[in-house]
Amino acid sequence: MLDPATESAMRARFEDADFARWMGLELVSLGDGTSEIRLKLEPHHLNPGRIVHGGVVAGMLDVAAGLAHRTKLGPDATHVTVQLHINYLKAAGSGVVSARGTSLQTGQRVGHAEATLYDDAERILARASATFLIVRPGSVLRERTGDDA
After folding, report:
1. Mind giving me the DSSP string for 115-137?
2. Nearest-CA neighbor of 125 among 133, 115, 111?
3. What number of other Cβ atoms are within 10 A of residue 37's Cβ?
4. Which helix (H) or strand (E) segment is 18 a member of?
5. pLDDT value at residue 33
6. Separation CA 74–CA 80 (nearest Å)
7. Are 77 and 97 in contact (CB under 8 A)?
8. β-pair type (78-88, 26-31)
9. What are phi and psi of 22, to 5 degrees?
10. Among the listed residues 5, 2, 3, 42, the one whose alpha carbon sits nearest the alpha carbon of residue 22
């Protein structure tokens, strides 16, 4: 079970994120090492072929994996994605898509997570694996990027 204070802080951070609002993402759930986000597909999420744009898929998978990973970091650390590998499996052009993330490993400097994107019929659309650099207080990267990487 995720600590209620951590969940509250993460939800507030998500709600304050310009990217999540711009994309139209909804935070469905957070758990200890897990997350789920949802998106109702709109015309601006689609490519010229009228299917969800690969960048939208990548963004959702990155967010879901990152949120799951962040639940394991504690209040003082943050992270940046250093690798995101995606397998696009099936296209979608309408409805609601959901991305579910799972933290696989969290070390002192590096963490790993995965995420899967589903359509509203629970068919798998894409899968991703992610590697994150963990940024702790006082690190050079944190000084360069400000309070949050």
Report:
1. EEEE-TT--EEEEEEEEEEEE-T
2. 115
3. 26
4. helix 18-23
5. 97
6. 15
7. no
8. unpaired
9. -60, -40
10. 42
Look at the chain and count its residues: 149
How many domains is the chain built from? Answer: 1
Residue 140 is predicted with a pLDDT of 65
Q: Could you tell me the CATH number of the domain that includes residue 84?
A: 3.10.129.10
**What does pLDDT average to in each consecutive run of 10 residues of the chain (149 residues)?**
90 95 97 97 96 97 97 89 98 96 95 98 98 86 52
Which of 54, 64, 49 is closest to 86 using CA atoms?
Answer: 54
Backbone phi and psi for residue 19, each to the nearest 5 degrees, phi listed first: -60, -45
- Whole-angstrom Cα distance, residue 66 to residue 95? 24
Structure token pair of residue 77: 């650390």
> Residue 43 is part of which domain span?
4-145
Partner residues linked to 52 by β-bridges? 46
